[in-house]
Specification:
By secondary structure, this protein is an alpha/beta fold. The protein is 42% helix and 9% strand. The chain has 15 helices and seven strands. A seven-stranded mixed β-sheet has the order 2-3-4-1-7-6-5, sandwiched between helices. The structure holds adenosine-5'-triphosphate and magnesium ion. The site of magnesium ion has 3 residues, from helix 5. Magnesium ion binds at residues 111-112, 202.
Length: 413
């Protein structure tokens, strides 16, 4: 749309905390509800009343802060594996333990968002199936059905704090006097009572495997696999973390086999000592070496570009000339860093009135992740950020060709 139609726009509320059942459900149900600002060019924007201009600019800023999750070749392979495991495990009637999935990759590469999206979509389908097969089941109890539980590993994870984080998801009261066996039983009961099929433990590599407690925590994780759920573990560089230290790779199936848990037997979760099986999938960053890799990066940039609402953006702003290579150099092909650079760039482009992204404009911005919330630098969750040329001391003259052309610079004319 290039006409002067603005769109009604509701300011987003506080971002939902997915680590609680209520927050997860809220996020799942609203995750696709953001409506981006309508596309508009400079001429159409100039025709708006001052009030509509302000509202539209606010809507554009919100659009750039809520860029959609795009399917990438890497997220597609995680999705394929995760979906296969979750669905076949969820349909399994036998009491046998379910194979788990580990999703590994560098920080900011989209592990959390990709897994949450795949599992939320599974939950949508699973609930629809229940509704379809048995629409009158358990009236009034629907809130208690939680097919997916999302839990973040505490920064200094220990067996008891890991159990408490899971119970906190369900808002299950925990008494300070509960010992580990009681907590484990409570976790098993909560998973069962809520019909949970998938238990996600995010940032699992916060358990650095050299503390005395860590063996115990690892043992506990294997006990969770006896609770008839698909256990999904997400972490930075899982193979290098020590988490697989006792594991054995099976070349025939590609799976990792981990020894059985002491806890599961001690706490009566199962009678036998079966090995635990995990698929390990790597969510990589984009690469820029071969023609197919460059094509995939260009396709991603094309998707990002379609979400932007700058008023004077040339067609293919991110995908032509040296821009794709420049963006790759600035971000190492890490989707989260690209998102940050583009969001900051758009804010700058609107503030200066340039209303387009250029290498000159991006050159003046540095990506600062030092205050990133919910990330543990010690667990590798903050990736290395390539510096801009300016920071490397090879500053070029800034491209000022377009500097004073946009509406913010020219005033609301
Ligand atoms: N496929 C994608 N398309 C567009 N943006 C994405 C995609 N995947 C992730 N992002 C964005 O990148 C940012 C980082 O993603 P996410 O938090 O999932 O990374 P992570 O790998 O879990 O990082 P960490 O190891 O620090 O926990 C998020 O803001 C997210 O919106
Ligand atoms: Mg994450």
């Amino acid at each position: 749309m290039t006409s002067g139609d603005t769109a009604p726009f509701v300011l987003p509320g506080p971002s939902p905390a997915r680590e609680t059942l209520a927050g997860w459900q809220h996020w799942r149900l609203t995750r696709r509800s953001f409506v981006p600002a309508p596309a508009m060019d400079l001429a159409a924007w100039r025709l708006l009343s001052p009030k509509k201009k302000t509202l539209h600019d606010l809507h554009r800023a919100a659009t750039h802060a809520n860029l959609p999750l795009l399917t990438t070749p890497m997220s597609r392979s995680v999705e394929r594996l995760l979906n296969g495991r979750i669905e076949s495990n969820a349909l399994k009637l036998k009491p046998a333990t379910r194979a788990g999935v580990m999703v590994s990759g560098g920080g900011y590469q989209g592990k959390t968002e990709s897994v949450c999206e795949v599992t939320a979509a599974f939950e949508d389908r699973w609930l629809a199936l229940h509704q379809h097969l048995n629409p009158d089941a358990a009236p009034g109890c629907r809130d208690l059905h939680a097919p997916v539980a999302y839990v973040q590993t505490p920064v200094t994870a220990k067996p008891k704090s890991t159990c408490k984080a899971i119970l906190n998801f369900y808002d299950t009261p925990v008494s300070a006097r509960m010992d580990l066996p009681e907590l484990i039983h409570q976790v098993a009961a909560s998973l069962r009572d809520h019909g949970t099929k998938v238990l996600i433990l995010d940032d699992i590599t916060r358990l650095r495997m050299h503390r005395a407690d860590d063996q115990d925590t690892l043992d506990l994780i294997r006990a969770f696999m006896s609770m008839h759920v698909t256990l999904v573990l997400i972490g930075v560089d899982i193979p290098g973390s020590g988490l697989l230290r006792e594991g054995r790779h099976d070349a025939a199936t590609g799976q990792w086999h981990l020894p059985a848990s002491r806890h599961a037997k001690i706490h009566g979760l199962e009678a036998t000592q079966t090995e635990r099986r995990f698929d390990l999938v790597e969510l990589d960053r984009f690469r820029y070496d071969t023609a197919p890799q460059i094509a995939a990066w260009l396709q991603h940039l094309c998707g990002v570009q379609a979400g932007l609402r700058l008023l004077d953006a040339p067609e293919n702003m991110l995908t032509t000339g040296t821009m794709p290579e420049y963006l790759f150099q600035r971000t190492n092909g890490v989707v989260g860093l690209l998102e940050r650079l583009i969001e900051d760039g758009c804010r700058e482009a609107i503030a200066t009135g340039l209303e387009r992204l250029t290498e000159g404009l991006l050159e003046d911005l540095s990506i600062d992740l030092s205050h990133a919330p919910h990330r543990d630098p010690a667990a590798g969750e903050i990736p290395d950020v390539p510096t801009n040329r300016t920071a490397r001391g090879t500053r070029r003259g800034r491209n000022t060709v377009f500097d004073d052309r946009g509406p913010a610079a020219a005033g609301a004319s």
